[in-house]
Structure to design on (1264 residues):
């Protein structure tokens, strides 16, 4: 069996999970990890008995490594990803793909020129509850989708990264509603504020899609108990998705139904998909374009929150 | 014991409840009801062994009647209420107070000139769960209130009245958040649409209050199962209010607490308050001004949904 | 339309409900109430503009009254019911039917001799959730019924009647499981104790039915929050019944389903059934025999709790 | 730091977890595993880069191994554990400790004679929700404990072991209620049956403790959805324990409270406790005597189910 030689760049709390999961995927050979923090890099390297570095270039210089997961802070994504692409690595960039739209477009172009695959790490796409939801909607179980309503709230994290709650949390639901509605987002209105952080730590985001379909996303770092919930309302019924417990309930005029869904780790499914797609020379999902679209809406939300006006979404 | 002589004008599904409740209030003498539909008026009249009319003027002409509940369709509120006020009746007008802001202002002025009390029927104010919530917030249990999020959804009613879902349902939560935030609403943005009705049957409403406090209200007539929920997020915790079951839960960093609240019928508390206030020659709550403020936000939401732009709230 | 002339004997908290409900039933003329407490009898009499007495004999002496509800304390059931039967009244006796098996058998025999109908007030039989459960089981949705598990717990009532928690609360579930299993109860084992009352205030009751089907009932007056729950386990699935909210959920290997059930007041359905059966000259349900069977199991449980040994159920 | 050299005997689904967890415990050196199934033993051995055997004797013959976890089928426990003890190994025996009371007593005596520590694997003892419950009860939050009610039900496992549902599932709750009540169990009554298995696959167990405290345990392999729940009722309130989600709620007359509990893997806490106790030359918990007491009640339940009579618990 052919295996894909992979490495993980950035071994913070989420990068650690990439390493752990690659180590369990049959189609992947985890060869190396890198982290600026030497003790972190060393610990992970030793745990899996693989090479470890404190500089991403040392990973990217290795010709035996075919693909990388990029899990560093957002502001560094553009540079490292561009280097990775130029050295011919396939790359999975964690969300948010980059800090700016310009950077995101550059990455897409570079990957295209270089002939490598670029994927973006929207892990909720691989949540079994989301897949079941998409299947139910496709089967017409709730009629035409009119409204989506996401609630993604948590207590303030001890360590905030280099982006606010919109690019950190809301972006997940933005990508999911982009999939659920089969039409383009046209306009974004948002309010946001910050109570305890440098970046916005709460936001209410209204997204107007074509045909007056609407999404609303409430996100914050103010809420004691973590909630990750999506309610999709159609003309014939409603689906409630609990991302954390991977449960869905479907309501229609007769009753409420909760199908049993086999629980799976979304990151495992995501990385399996990434590895297998590349082994089969196919584009892995979600694509760079998906990452760009979600980022575009985040930027529109941030701008709307600043100006107090709705912002039109420009096509790419 | 002095009793207040009252009558109910409009005996549709909700007016019937006014009649039933007045009949159980010690301080009230229910003397008459009126409804355009003769069989309805007759049935209620006979049930309580009181006079019944098919014309509101016949009620208002009676000098022994001191106060009336007005439960007719919204479009008729302004005319009938004005007549009632001019005949010197104290009046409780069901929500929405009137169909237009102009009409609402006229009623307030007329009541003032005439020296009668004008109240507006926001029944959720009298929900024991709301009162407990306000008490907890006043005690500082969730810190400073930053966000309010209401979800008020139902299946399409068989018979839609003469207003859309914003003035019919969302107005309840608009009045409640006006109470919860001790600052003025400044701006409203809304999206809305209609799937199965003449008026809007779904809406997402964002209300920006002073100091960047935010409320979001989702309301529709598309959802199979009735939900009436309010989530208030503060700097130290969160309160979830279930209007229907009259339950609240308070979350903070230590846990979740549900105090047992004695269940009471909100309409009973509302009408007791109305009757007792008048018997004590005090202004009953909510006032005409409360009704006007909520209507003002409804109108702003409707205008925003039409223009696609946020609408500033004008002071009165 | 022919109406049945009825009266209510005993106007405590539950008897009051009989009066209120009869007053709303089209087929019934509520003619009189009786209660030893003059002010109670008077209040109810005046509320419905009917005759009121402080002595049950005055009701039973009236030849125009055709049927009575008997809602007095348990210890008085046998005497008053016997008098009612002898004066030719059809009778609905509240649960528990009588205090002793002997008394119950006497009533059945007397009603038979006298040619009047005797019914017993197991109100949970008329709970829409129970009817839906029986329908689902009949449709084979959970396969063969193997186990039933009831939990009926509350905080200690302010005023305890003249029986313990087994005859007061558990008897409801005993009657329901007698219906659910289509086989006879064979043996009962129970533990019980009393913490704060003269009679037992907690009990665990195991009932062994034919073919080794089993029921377990936990009941007490120790629990702060009222729960009335029944879980029926079959070879193919499970039904959970919430008596209070009138909701059921059905679990099988594919998922969990909650059908929407129209909420109805069980006492209304019970008294409508009683009145209509008599108007049609048919035996109302539940019968005296049902009452006897349930009482038989209660007595066995009490005896088992006392002796520490299982008690065989004797056929009638 | 001194480490304890450990091995795992039996690498079925649960033994695998012992190996994984020991590998993560700082105080333990996992040196070897054994399983009759060569491919299983080899897979685990290679995963952790340790020695693997197909015969437990090869593990027990190694003088460098100081302690073992015994995770083989129940019927083999007595023989292997006795050999382990005789070779001077400290031993953690999975539940049920042995198949017979005689065997259990022999192990306790042998460990005592040999001067090694014997522990039994009641993993629920280490569930953070159970510890929090015990703390709340000790603080008097629910008054005197009167009743315990456990529900431990699942769908039939694909592969049933060599014991029925009483020794496999109910034994967990038996051990927990033995801890919760600070008095001895005196008598057991049980009903049981088997629908789809050789051993009993459902059981209702009533345990009478001193001072008429009562426990009831319902367990089966008939229920589609897994439930592991314990309800403890005291004179002042109630605690509901959800073992799976590690959540507890406390009800009293004022309300319901759910303290947030940090989620931990119970097996990790169990094995850490085992390892650290031995490193400190202290008796690890739960002891062999705890295992014997629980087994004693299981045997009494099985006997009661067979004879139809309650069975007295003999002191040891």
């Amino acid at each position: 069996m052919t295996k894909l030689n992979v490495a993980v760049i950035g071994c913070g709390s989420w990068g650690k999970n990439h390493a752990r999961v690659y180590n369990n995927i049959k189609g992947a050979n985890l060869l190396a990890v890198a982290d600026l923090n030497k003790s972190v890099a060393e610990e992970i390297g030793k745990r899996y008995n693989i090479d470890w570095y404190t500089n991403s270039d040392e990973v990217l210089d290795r010709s035996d490594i075919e693909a990388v997961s990029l899990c560093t802070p957002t502001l560094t994504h553009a540079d490292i990803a561009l280097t990775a692409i130029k050295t011919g690595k396939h790359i999975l960039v964690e969300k948010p793909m980059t800090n700016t739209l310009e950077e995101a477009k550059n990455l897409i172009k570079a990957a295209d020129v270089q002939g490598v695959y670029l994927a973006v790490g929207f892990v909720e796409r691989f949540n079994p509850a989301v897949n079941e939801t998409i299947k139910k909607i496709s089967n017409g179980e709730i009629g035409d989708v009119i409204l989506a309503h996401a609630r993604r709230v948590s207590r303030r994290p001890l360590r905030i990264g280099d982006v606010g709650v919109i690019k950190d949390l809301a972006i997940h639901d933005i990508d999911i509603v982009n999939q659920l509605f089969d039409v383009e987002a046209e306009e974004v209105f948002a309010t946001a504020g910050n109570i305890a952080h440098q970046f916005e730590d709460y936001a209410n985001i209204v997204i107007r899609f074509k045909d007056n379909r609407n999404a609303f996303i409430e996100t914050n770092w103010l809420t004691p108990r973590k909630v990750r919930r999506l309610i999709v309302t159609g003309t014939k019924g409603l689906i409630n998705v609990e991302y954390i417990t991977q449960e869905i309930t479907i309501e229609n005029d007769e009753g409420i139904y909760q199908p049993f869904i086999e629980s799976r780790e979304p990151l495992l499914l995501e990385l399996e998909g990434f590895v297998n797609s590349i082994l089969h020379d196919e584009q892995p999902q979600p694509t760079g374009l998906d990452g760009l679209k979600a980022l575009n809406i985040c930027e529109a939300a941030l701008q709307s929150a600043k100006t107090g006006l709705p912002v039109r979404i420009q096509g790419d």
